[in-house]
Amino acid sequence: MVISEIIKNLNPNFNKLIFSAALLSIIAVSCKKDDNDKDTDTNSAKYDAVAQAIFNDMSDVSDQAATKGDLSGFKLDGSDGILTSCAVITIDTLSTPKVCTIDFGSGCTGNDGKTRAGKINVSFTGPYKQAGTVITITPVNYSVNGNVVSGSKTITNNGANSAGFLSYSVVVDGQIILAGNGGVITWQANRTREFIEGVNTSIFADDVYRISGSSTGTKISGSTWTTNITTSLVRKISCRQFVSGILTITPSNKPARTVDYGNGNCDNTATVTINGNTFTIGLL
Asked: For the purposes of burial, counting CB atoms within 10 Å of the CB of 141, is it exposed (0-12), middle (13-18) or buried (19 or more)?
């Protein structure tokens, strides 16, 4: 006699017990599925996008200033220079490494509509496009649109890679105090960027980069997330945002979700897919 028959003989309610257990199992699975379907939390994707945008913006300005010593030729979206003359640039060419200071004073609104305040110090061991050059960007009492930025960003020119593109290692260890009591973000990134277009010109607006790597973030509330770029992000300097690419972002205690920056068009949105449901988020 099989075990189930023995139990059945001992307990006349055996069939009811089996049915009840099966029903509870179905309910548990259904509840779990409903919980997953209700996951609409795109906050980690938004916070990560804010950090990326702010630290990319800081290096956009710094790259130009360290290379040319002025910002007058930096075109963005066909506009005039990204910054007006209220940004004061000083370059110490006698120091080793050389140091460039960009001083925005108590507030300097650029032609891109962003208001920057404080200073950015940029130390560079050589020209931006020279293999071996190390550029370190350090904000000092710096803010952009009221978001206070601290920490550092280091860019190392590794020379040409196997595909023939200049390759840079990019390491960020930073913090952002969000405007309007929005809290605090800490953000660390370790990425590689390839200079795939515009390397042979002096025009910044035609530069295009392809970016891979990972990052981690923490919101002051304690929520954390990790990201991994699964399809290289493409950044055109003529656009404030990534124009394409996909990354996977995994918040603490929640399933992974994907962030898709599109198919090459310059816009201020990205899509976040969670458990098969897609949401659109705005970008800084």
From this structure: exposed
pTM over 0.90: no
Is residue 188 pLDDT above 80, yes or no?
Answer: yes
Q: Are strands 242-251 and 257-263 parallel, antiparallel or unpaired?
A: antiparallel
Outline where the chain has alpha helix (H): 3-10, 14-37, 43-68
CB 136 within 8 A of CB 123: yes
Closest-CA residue to 196 (of 164, 228, 171): 164
Please count the helices (runs of H) and the strands (runs of E) in the chain: 3, 14
- Contact call for residues 241 and 264 (beta carbons, < 8 A): no
Give the total residue count for the chain. 284
Distance between CA atoms of 118 and 104, rounded to whole angstroms?
5
Question: Residue 198 gets which letter from DSSP?
Answer: S
- For strands 98-103 and 115-124, give the pairing: antiparallel
* Per-domain residue ranges of the chain: 42-221
Please, which residues bridge with residue 229 across strands? 247
